[in-house]
Write a structure and sequence with these properties.
The complex is a heterodimer of chains A (about 425) and B (about 450). Chain A is mainly alpha-helical and about 425 residues long. Helix content of chain A is about 70%, strand content about 0%. Chain A contains 15 helices and two strands. The chains are: A mainly alpha (about 425), B mainly alpha (about 450).
Chain lengths: ~425, ~450
């Protein structure tokens, strides 16, 4: 009963910021809409074309990294709409109108996805409305009305600087919000989450921003002709990204499937590898590892048992054959050499190799052994105690793991495990 | 070759007389240099430089003659790589001529130049597209000419595999060239490169990542298969050879690229379910009893269970499940017959049997390729799809088979009878008896 309650609290906390963000995005959009309705709309052709672009971009969003969808065309288009200044545009749109158009078009783009049953995410879209609003305010503040694309570098260079500032402010807003959400959702330390968000922003985010700048400059100079000229290359870019994203997904599921082979061979109980990996990932998040290290950690936890395949058959009933440390270390060594053979997972192999080393003889004296090995070691032990069929209570398992601190287990990792379990982590 | 070089030189000299030099010309040369340096794969396996994008921008900013003059700079980035003198002369020459082709198309359609551009955008866009097409065509023509002279690669293959697939993407990216020119004229000058290079770098990153992920997946699957094969010394390398064999047959049958990849994956993974068969049964010398045979018959289903979540084509899974079906319906697990057996499964069945017969087993030495082909032909109506057998025999006879050979263990003299689940009750003398070949 108390466990269920804890779980509910856990879930509610996850939703917290999402609700706040959606409400904030909606409120900003609504206010902007009202202001726009009272002031009247300027530049209808641009409203329609950019609105359409944002909506279509939202419709063709796709998943690039494991956890989130992206709509690069919508982002670029909305940022471009922020930064129009030039002979072909006439009166540039007001901040309120920019936000209203972005908000309405985003909703229009999500709607068909929701009807078709495709994945969509109101929170991510609200984040865009908010960061576009920030970009619009920044651009409005730093750009005097006299500045526009007139063919002279004295106007072009300051304008480009202003656009860069606007794009950066949007990126920074989104990174801060994203880091906050990561902290909340995965219990990552905020600085680590912010560092990762900024790294992503520096790559994909900046590219979307620069595409937006190109679209803005082009539209300012030659009007709506610039739209197809930017959108065609953007579509090609998106196509390249989709291929990449699907190859990445295929690879990830391949590793997961390979990991399940120990279950099919009877070396581990169903779901054991997946449970170990979930716990290892939770600990890694708590310790704020970088995305690359997180990925290696997950694979290592999934594949930690693969060395057993090269050993003899499991005993009937699937109980672990490997009772002694020497046997487990030998299996880990074999597993590591197997993983190494792929030639692309060297770091994973290194983690697996030391995943059964006791802390005192391993990491305590040899700094080359990765922290991740200690994480996998603890996750394996905890899963053995609590996982399906073994049925110890988390408190009891924590107690027996606590006995091994410093000798068997890395104190840093055990502390992290205690926090993770304390926050209500259950298999 | 000499003709190309001389005519390029002539065009270059004429262009130099047609243009006025200024700081802009220098900046444009820099732009071309950048375009040539930024090589990347427009599609996987199709490397191309982005000088086409830079070239279009130069058409629009300063006109075709300048473009021809500065096109030489697109080659500078390649100077780092060592190459024979002939190439050192030919490569910049054909660049000049290809740029000339593009420039001619641009001028023919009356593309505006410099500040006139902002007044006549539609014509600029149309002329720029024509310029790109002209550049690409001249490029393809010159390269085809060289390939034809060298006679190493067939021109048709080159056009089909390189020029064809990259044509439309290059046309799309050249739109960025027009925008580059517009922002350049709009006052940004050479700084406008920054706006264009950023997005292009991201495309390059995505494409290289795509390649890396694909390579990683292939390597991981292969490593994993090797682990499973450690269960049985005698089947080492079997999966990779089957994958290579079905690959040869697939190409013979002219499968499209995605299906060809899927077929090779299926060949590699067809026995993955063996991981669920106890090692003691796989290695057991002597005849297997019914229960042990049942355990072996489970392996196709186990394989599908294992790879079920991987987003392969559906054909990969059905091939793994049905690769032990036989044409006359006596195979397992479903007892399908004829063309009810999935196409890929029929292909794998043939190559699987072929590799098994040409490898050493504990109870017999390897058979020769010719002997094995004769066995396949002899049994082609009972076990296999006859048409596919004929195709396979033809492939092996024309291309040969890099046989198992090498590091195979010798047959174990002490073993009298044994059954390999892949071995067939084919031909005479040795091999498995009925029970391995399916229900009697």
């Amino acid at each position: 009963m108390s466990q269920a309650k804890e779980f509910d609290a856990f879930e509610a906390r996850r939703l917290g910021s999402g609700v706040v963000l959606s409400v904030a995005g909606g409120a900003v959009g609504l206010v902007a809409l009202i202001i726009t309705a009272r002031q009247g709309v300027t530049g209808w052709p641009f409203v329609i074309v950019f609105g359409l672009l944002i909506a279509v971009g939202e419709m063709v969003q796709f998943r690039v990294d494991p956890s989130r969808n992206r709509a690069p065309i919508a982002t670029s288009a909305s940022l471009a709409y922020v930064m129009l200044r030039g002979p072909a545009v006439g009166v540039p749109p007001e901040v309120a109108q920019i936000v209203a158009v972005t908000g309405l078009a985003t909703l229009a783009g999500i709607f068909p996805r929701a009807i078709a049953g495709l994945p969509w995410d109101l929170v991510i879209s609200s984040r865009r409305v908010l960061s576009v609003a920030f970009a619009a305010v920044t651009f409005e503040l730093v750009t005097p009305d006299s500045l526009y694309w007139n063919g002279s570098w004295t106007h072009a260079v300051p304008l480009t600087g202003a656009m860069l500032l606007a794009v950066l402010s949007a990126g920074l807003t989104d990174a801060l919000v994203g880091a906050g959400q990561d902290t909340e959702r995965y219990n990552r330390p905020f600085p680590a989450a912010l560092r990762d968000e900024l790294a992503v922003m520096g790559r994909i985010g900046l590219a979307m921003g620069i595409s937006g700048m190109l679209l803005a400059a082009g539209t300012s100079l030659i009007g709506l002709w610039a739209v197809p000229l930017v959108v065609v290359p953007l579509l090609l870019t998106q196509f390249a990204f989709r291929r990449f994203a699907s190859a990445q997904r295929t690879y990830r599921t391949t590793v997961r499937s390979m990991a399940r082979s120990t279950e099919i061979a009877g070396f581990s109980s169903p779901g054991q590898n997946a449970r170990t990996a979930t716990l290892a990932v939770a600990i890694g998040n708590d310790l704020g590892l970088t995305p690359a290290r997180m990925e290696a950690l997950e694979y290592a936890a999934l594949l930690s048992g693969v060395g057993q395949l090269a050993l003899a058959d499991p005993s009937p009933g699937g109980a672990s054959l490997l009772r002694t440390r020497e046997e487990r270390q030998r299996a880990a060594e074999i597993g590591a050499s197997v993983i190494e053979r792929s030639g692309v997972l060297d770091h994973v192999a290194e983690i697996v190799r030391h995943s059964n080393d006791p802390y005192r003889h391993g990491r305590a004296s040899n700094a080359d052994i990765p922290l991740e090995s200690g994480i996998v070691n603890v996750a394996l032990a905890y899963e053995q105690l609590v996982g399906e069929g073994n049925g110890q209570s988390p408190a009891k398992a924590m107690e027996s793991i606590g006995l091994g601190i410093g000798a068997e287990y890395d104190p840093v990792v055990v502390e992290s495990l205690r926090r993770v379990i304390g926050r209500g982590f259950r298999f | 070759m000499a003709v190309v070089a001389v005519s390029a030189l002539a065009v270059l000299v004429v262009s130099l007389t047609q243009i006025t030099f200024s700081l802009t010309t220098l900046a444009l040369a820099l732009l071309m240099l950048l375009g040539g340096a930024l090589r990347f794969k427009v599609l996987p396996n199709h490397p191309a430089a982005l000088d086409s994008v830079a070239l279009v921008a130069v058409f629009v900013i300063a006109g075709p003659w300048t473009a021809v003059a500065v096109s030489v700079f697109g080659y500078v980035a390649q100077l780092r790589q060592p190459s024979p003198l002939v190439k050192r002369i030919f490569n910049p020459s054909y660049r000049v001529l290809a740029a000339g082709g593009g420039g001619a198309a641009y001028a023919l359609l009356g593309g505006p130049v410099g500040s006139e551009v902002l007044d006549d955008i539609p014509r600029t866009v149309v002329a720029a597209m024509a310029g790109t097409i002209g550049h690409q065509l001249a490029n393809a023509l010159l390269l085809s000419l060289i390939l034809w002279l060298e006679g190493q690669v067939r021109v048709v293959d080159f056009l089909k595999s390189v020029i064809g697939p990259t044509f439309l993407p290059m046309l799309g990216y050249s739109a960025l060239g027009v925008l580059l020119a517009v922002t350049w004229i709009g006052g940004l000058g050479i700084a406008s490169c920054l706006l264009v290079v950023g997005p292009l770098l991201v495309v390059r990153w995505a494409l290289s990542q795509y390649q890396a992920e694909r390579a990683a997946q292939a390597a991981t699957m292969r490593a994993f298969i090797q682990v499973i094969e450690t269960k049985d010394l005698y089947t080492r390398g079997h999966s990779e050879r089957v994958s290579a064999g079905v690959g040869m047959l697939g190409r013979q049958l002219g499968l499209p690229e995605d299906r060809q990849n899927a077929l090779e994956h299926a060949g590699l993974l067809h026995d993955v379910g063996k991981v669920g068969v106890p090692t003691s049964i796989i290695r057991k010398p002597g005849k297997l009893d019914d229960a042990e045979m049942d355990a072996i018959r489970l392996h196709p289903a186990r394989g599908v269970e294992l790879i079920g979540n991987i987003p392969f084509l559906e054909e990969v899974k059905s091939a793994v499940l049905h690769h032990h079906e036989k044409y006359d319906g006596t195979g397992y697990p479903a007892g399908l017959s004829g063309t009810h057996i999935p196409f890929f499964a029929r292909i794998i069945g043939i190559v699987d049997a072929f590799d098994c017969l040409t490898s050493t087993r504990s109870y017999r030495p390897a058979r020769s390729v010719d002997e094995t082909l004769a066995i396949l032909v002899q049994d082609k109506t009972t076990h296999f799809d006859p048409e596919l057998v004929d195709a396979f025999v033809q492939v092996i006879q024309t291309q040969g088979w890099s046989a198992a050979a090498a590091d195979q263990p010798a047959p174990d003299q002490s073993v009298q009878v044994s059954i390999d689940h892949d071995d067939l009750s084919l031909g005479t003398g040795g091999g498995a008896s009925g029970s391995a070949a399916g229900p009697a």
